[in-house]
Design goal:
This protein has about 210 residues and is mostly helical. The chain has one domain (about 1-205). The chain has helices spanning about 1-20, 20-65, 70-80, 90-110, 135-150, 165-180, 185-205.
């Protein structure tokens, strides 16, 4: 993990050398890594959509052949054979986790005490938390937006599974305890990352049935 953090820290320093602003450097490294991981994310989302379709077919077969166990097993085997679900979703998550953790530590390690950014003019140092709470509140909103898509009329035709409001509130509370305490430089990474995820989700929904 230290190797990844050190490598990412060096890239942040390169971007800082180009821009002279740690905030912009953090945005650049975050977007670069998110774009590199985009093919994996697309594959993961596609797999999840495929799993939903398979689950619907399985439910239909179980209902149709409820009184014929042998026929049910035959039909289920056909569905599983025709719609093989790979492990790309899990693989994608396993690949992304050390990268994202390394990104967190890499950013935190290279920021200097006097580092500021034109992107966060109200913050006196990127090593300090945002006492104005603008950054953490914006991040929390962006983090729950994808979970609220299923409640929006414009996405109703996508037949998305709704995330229970209790779960959304619990995520807000848990993430809130974290984002309000982290340095603003790391918070900027989470903000950009969350915004990228929202845009990615909207585009994916726009091009899927």
């Amino acid at each position: 993990m230290n190797v990844i953090a050190d490598f990412i820290g060096q890239i942040v320093q390169v971007f800082y050398g180009l821009t002279g602003d740690y905030g912009i450097a953090i945005v650049m490294i975050t977007l670069s890594i998110k774009l590199l991981l985009l093919p994996l994310n697309i594959k993961q989302r596609t797999q999840l959509e495929k799993q939903k379709e398979v689950s619907q077919k399985v439910a239909e077969i179980q209902q149709k052949y409820a009184n014929n166990q042998n026929r049910m097993n035959e039909e289920l085997q056909k569905v599983y054979a025709e719609n093989g679900i790979g492990s790309m979703g899990c693989l994608s998550t396993l690949i992304q986790m050390p990268i994202m953790i390394g990104l967190y530590h890499g950013i935190r390690n290279v920021i200097t005490e006097d580092a500021t950014s034109v992107l966060l003019p109200w913050v006196s140092s990127l090593l300090l938390s945002d006492t104005a709470c603008i950054l953490p509140i914006a991040t929390l909103i962006l983090q729950i937006v994808p979970m609220l898509f299923s409640y929006m009329p414009c996405f109703k035709e996508k037949q998305m599974q709704k995330t229970p409001m209790g779960t959304i509130i619990m995520i807000l509370v848990m993430n809130g305890m974290f984002v309000f305490m982290i340095p603003s430089g790391v918070g900027l990474y989470y903000l950009v990352s969350s915004l990228f995820t929202v845009v990615e989700q909207v585009i994916f929904l726009a091009f899927t049935h």
